[in-house]
Amino acid sequence: MGTPKALKFDADGRSWLRRGVSTLRNAGCSPVIVVLGARAADAAALLPPDSTDILVVESDWTKGMSKSLLAGLAAAQNLDAPAAVITLVDLPDLDVETISRAIGPTPVPSDTLRRAVFHGTPGHPVIIGRDHWPALIASLVGDSGANGYLRAHHADQVECSDLSTGRDVDYPQA
Q1: What is the mean pLDDT of residues 152-156?
Q2: Structure pTM?
Q3: In the chain, what are the domain boundaries?
Q4: Is the CATH number 3.90.550.10 carried by domain 5-159?
């Protein structure tokens, strides 16, 4: 992308990071754990100054997305939360409705394992109950996230293509 995705802005001038955090909050997720890597201080400055979110800086971010997911789950273990809602900063049309549908009925059971799918294609958000955290953490390596774990443990798939595209922006022209 030429720069960390957390430093990218929409056409309306809103940072992807701030938009993502705001969307999670509006869907009832609190606190929001933000994991930053490259240029973390610049990205952190984009968050509201009165933010109650938890900021985690992952210094090993170059070793792959598993490091970011591990850092986020480590921070979540200190919370009294039955599950974690995991998403990415580069999902331009992720909205409150998609997150809410993926979360499902509340309270969320600690054995929940669920992911949004878009026309049958897995995407985000992913909801991982606390009961799964130890095994997921043990399975994470390199530049892979929770995908293998979710497949192996038959995560519930929640179709969300009527709400958003699930499009993940990985290249500038996207």
Answers
A1: 97
A2: 0.92
A3: 5-159
A4: yes
